[in-house]
Amino acid sequence: MNFTYLSGLEHARLGSGQMNTAVVAQHLRDGQFALRTFPELLCSLYPAGDLQQRLTDAFLADDPGASAGTVAKVVRNWLSGRAKPTRREEIFHVAFALGLSESQANLLLGHCTDYGIHYREGRDVVYAWFLRNGATYARARDFFAALPPIRKPDSVPEHSTAHLTHELQSAFLQAHDETELRACYEKNLLNLGTLHLRAYAYFRRYLDRLVHPVPEWTGLDEPDYSMQAVMDLYLRMKMPTGRSRGDMSVIQRLIRSNWPNTTALKNIRLRKADVPRKLLLLFYIITENVVDDEYRETDEDYLSPEQRLDDHWYALNAMLMDCGMPLLDPRNAFDWLVLYAVTADEESMSERMEAVIEQLFSNA
Fold it and tell me: pTM of the prediction?
């Protein structure tokens, strides 16, 4: 099941310039957007009629002390769309309860969090192995709890470590039983625990570009921007800052949710918080992915809007894949807004996105 493919109609509309900012804002605001929901995804992964009962029974069986009424209510809220699990442990539990495959669990994680299964993260690689081998959640949980702790890496890799991820994935595929799994885990302890380092490396490159707006080679002595200035100049984008969300539509709430602020930027820079997927996509838009002096064909005037969209689609998904994040999904409201922004021609990508946000939240 591939959620990252643009239909021919979507590609034509986004790439041809048929949609202006007012049309895009109305498309998102007036319920014309076919948002992918958690219940829809869950039912597609497990189409049997006993979904609610199976989840409830599994969660109660794995936690005998849990309240049957509380568990049943949580599951009902998931299936009604009123809530969805956000803790990775809980999402893996759902995957085991429904007997999902490794790839299906990856989709579920990606939908509910910023990261899919990542093979440089200890819990992920162990749970993926047990899913692959048809074991139970309780067995996977207990096995992982008995493993030695992972030492937090001291440095951030400057270059892509996707090759390391693939090497680790391949190594764990060779484990045929729990003894070999433990041996593989212990052998690769120094390579584990780097789940979010790649995302931080991208974050740092993009942020440095914004903090140092004038390159050193110019010889101009310009002061660096503060985090507050970066937020005000680049990331605010006319997004409403009030706390009230009562009058907002589902789409408005989803696009506004976890919008970065100055405190978040400072915490991420100090490694006190993980890099959100939304922030990386925003940085790509703001910088137009220009963070060095490398040649990029996307800058050439001879490219058609459709070709430019294809090139950005590839570049964005390459970055997301490198970070272990879900690829672009046109039925994700913010992803769709990003895809519209990268087709900008006369204006900048950030100006195009900001214009949509201003109109989308004009009633907020």
Answer: 0.80
